Amino acid sequence: AQKVTQAQTEISVVEKEDVTLDCVYETRDTTYYLFWYKQPPSGELVFLIRRNSFDEQNEISGRYSWNFQKSTSSFNFTITASQVVDSAVYFCALSGVIQGAQKLVFGQGTRLTINP
Amino acid sequence: GAVVSQHPSWVICKSGTSVKIECRSLDFQATTMFWYRQFPKQSLMLMATSNEGSKATYEQGVEKDKFLINHASLTLSTLTVTSAHPEDSSFYICSARYLRGSSYNEQFFGPGTRLTVL
């Protein structure tokens, strides 16, 4: 069975601080995909990144960066120089590769609050 | 591209009534649509997967007779909450996917529908 754990339920930091959101996953698949989504107060999910299990390169997109470590089954997300607009709930998710099994399994989410 | 809409965005109904939520893929044909439910401050839980022209596949613990799903066309899926009760109050989110030749077929999410049952 697939499982995603986001141990941090809530994080609160002051603007401009760096913050890392942790994600640990479990799967028996050798090939899989990992995701991060942002859910602002409006409720709509915003896709941030998809990573194939074969690609362990870290990725940076502006203030966002992701650290994928297969050895520890982790896919952590760091926001550098956080801003108030980054306040949202962030979900890490996992999906299989086989078309019939491409269901998304979400973690419990981390509520991030950036205080001015 | 790849826009998914939901209607209504919010609905309030009385206990015992039925509510229909529509999910539309606006600029692509969705071979598969997914329905999720999200309770306040909780994660998204997959309720069912529907493929166009066939019966939906429900996740364990989801009542088929209570949550009726119809995927009659490649651009429209509907979720009907029958005989709604206050415990059905939740945020319902759909996603749509089209099959391509690539190994992964991305899900595109709708904006969600907030259901409140009085």
Cα distance, first to last residue of chain B? 37 Å
Largest sheet of chain A: 6 strands, mixed
Tell me the β content of chain B: over 45%
In angstroms, what separates the terminal alpha carbons of chain A? 41 Å
Identify the most extensive interface between protein chains.
A-B, 21 and 23 residues
Instruction: Quickly give the structural class of chain A.
Output: mainly beta
Chain-averaged pLDDT of chain B:
91
Task: Detail the poorly predicted runs of chain A.
Answer: none
> Would you identify the regions of chain B where 5 or more consecutive residues have pLDDT less than 50?
none
Measured by DSSP, the beta-strand proportion of chain A falls in over 45%
The helical percent of chain B reads under 10%
Order of helices and strands of chain B: EEEEEEEEEEE
Shape descriptor of chain A reads: globular
Going by helix content, strand content and strand pairing, the class of chain B is mainly beta
- Please state the CA-atom Rg of chain B, rounded to the nearest Å: 14 Å
Shape of chain B: globular
Tell me the helix content of chain A.
Answer: under 10%
**Main sheet properties of chain B:** 7 strands, mixed
